[in-house]
Amino acid sequence: MENKSSPWSRIEGKNIPTTIELDPVIYKYTFPGCRILDIGCANGKVGIPLALHGYSVTGIDVNTEVLCMTKFSSKSQNCQHIPLFIKGNATTLPFADATFDIAVMQAFLTTVVSKDDRARIIREACRVLKPQGHLYIADFGQTWHSKIYRERYINDLPVTKEEGSIVAYDEDTGEIAYIAHHFTEKEIVFLLIDNGFEVEFFKNDEFVTRTGNRVNGFVVVGKKTGITNINCY
């Protein structure tokens, strides 16, 4: 979802998959008046419920159509603080340093096919979070015990160039719609600790995809330390 050539900016808003539910653990880190940034907000499945809880929410996404849908949906609900949804790129967030208390990435990093972009995105989240701020991540894990995913990981590797990634095809044209990456525990942990966070909460989970398949997943909360391979202050 992170550059101009990304397919995620062109997919119809209604077709953007949003199947993961917000884990209640996030409410252990929220507090009255906290400011939350929803990165890759899509249809507001995360941001709108948080706004309904009374938090100040800003969502950012590259897809114009889904943002219009989300803005309309949020206005129709009785939010104490109307969430702000804007178009932007997670590798260069349009916010000042230390603006937010919590950042959320739900089923977002899976859409980022570049390892370098993933690291930039985590560092940007680090930059815009206040000292001791938290980053909540829920995303898909590699599921090698599943024959469906095992075959896709192997067969799609010549296209994806990364183990654990899969290709999704457009049902109408047969062309590649997008590539999604499934993480190992090691990948997700080191992505955080190498880019400004310590892992404060981690659990294995199971998610259901938009096609009804069950897949491994992780819910992770990192606490900002500001210690990175590249300084994120």
Per-chain topology:
Blueprint: E1 35-39, H1 47-52, E2 56-61, H2 64-75, E3 84-87, E4 100-106, H3 115-128, E5 129-140, H4 147-155, H5 157-160, E6 165-169, E7 176-181, H6 185-193, E8 195-208, E9 214-228
Parallel strand pairs: 1-2, 1-4, 2-3, 4-5
Antiparallel strand pairs: 5-9, 6-7, 8-9
Task: Explain what this protein looks like in three dimensions.
By secondary structure, this protein is α/β, with parallel strands linked by helices. The protein has a domain of 155 residues: Rossmann fold (3-Layer(aba) Sandwich), CATH 3.40.50.150. The strands form 2 sheets. It has a 7-stranded mixed sheet, with helices on both faces. 42% of the residues are buried. The mean pLDDT is 87.
Protein traits:
6 helices; 7-stranded mixed sheet; single chain; Rossmann fold; 233 residues
Task: Please outline what is shown here.
This protein is 23% helix and 32% strand.
CATH class of one domain: Alpha Beta
- What do the pLDDT scores average to? 87
> What is the CATH architecture term of one domain?
3-Layer(aba) Sandwich
Please outline the major beta sheet. Answer: 7 strands, mixed
Q: What class do helices, strands and sheet pairing give?
A: alpha/beta
Strand content: 25-35%
Distance between the termini: 25 Å
Tally of strands: 9
